[in-house]
């Protein structure tokens, strides 16, 4: 989502939230749950329109509709059906494969508090799949 914002003619400020239920700073805290009741980042609030969104795909599509109305910046390479499919397939790959695998890999590597053999095997498998995904992109 960060790169979507950077690509568009819009000024944005970002805020970092932390894991946990700290009422002021946590993604499961009261302040953040007003923005995203699912308690996860990314989320966005657009003061220009009052729109609030979460889920990276929904946020990116909103930003495209709101700030790239003519489809000049974030769009398929051309006007053919193949161009549209190429755009869609990379977007879906990002949302359904690369994003989730990378997220799980980060969780198991850096945040999971209890390591055991099953978790380590799962991590290696996820890590491998995420790396293959990144290499292929
Ligand atoms: N499918 C969601 C995934 C969101 C997600 O899992 N975000 C993680 C960080 S990458 C998070 O906020 N985790 C905090 C938690 O689950 O407590 C999206 O694409 O936005």
From TrEMBL:
InterPro entries: Glutathione_S-Trfase_N (IPR004045), Thioredoxin-like_sf (IPR036249). Residues 1-71 form the GST N-terminal domain. Belongs to the GST superfamily. This is GST N-terminal domain-containing protein. It comes from Diatrype stigma.
